[in-house]
Amino acid sequence: MNIEQYIEFAPILIAVIIFALQMKIFVTPELLEKKHREIMNECQKRFASVIYIEELKNQWGEIKEKIDKIYDYFLQSHGD
Q1: Residues 6+ apart with CB under 8 A from 14
Q2: Do residues 16 and 22 touch, judged by C-beta distance below 8 A?
Q3: What is the C-alpha separation between 47 and 53, in angstroms, rounded?
Q4: What is the chain's pLDDT, residue by residue, as a tens digit (80 residues)?
C-alpha cells in the first residue's frame, strides 16, 4: 500500500476513532479500577459477608440451646 491509499481512508479512520472516544468504547485501567472500587463498596453496603453469616448461624445455635435449657428447666420445675 502506498501513502495515497492511507490518505483516502484517513477521514473514515478519524471518524471511527472520534466515535470510539465519544462513546467511551475503550477504557483506561484507571477508570476500570475506579469503577471496580465503586462496585465493591456498593456490594459491601448491600450484602453480608460469608464470615458474618457463619457467625450469625453460630450465635443462633447458641441462643436456641439456651432457650431449650430454659424450657427444660421450666418444665421440670412447673411440670408437676
Answers
A1: none
A2: no
A3: 10
A4: 678 888 889 999 999 999 988 988 888 899 999 999 999 999 888 888 888 888 888 899 899 999 999 999 988 887 65
Separation between Cα atoms, residue 12 and residue 5, nearest integer Å: 12
**Residue 54 to residue 56: CA distance in whole angstroms:** 5
Q: How many residues does the chain have?
A: 80
The three three-digit cell numbers of residue 31, written as one number: 477508570
Query: Are 26 and 20 within 8 A, CB to CB?
Result: yes
Dihedral sign of CA atoms 10, 12, 15, 21 in order? negative
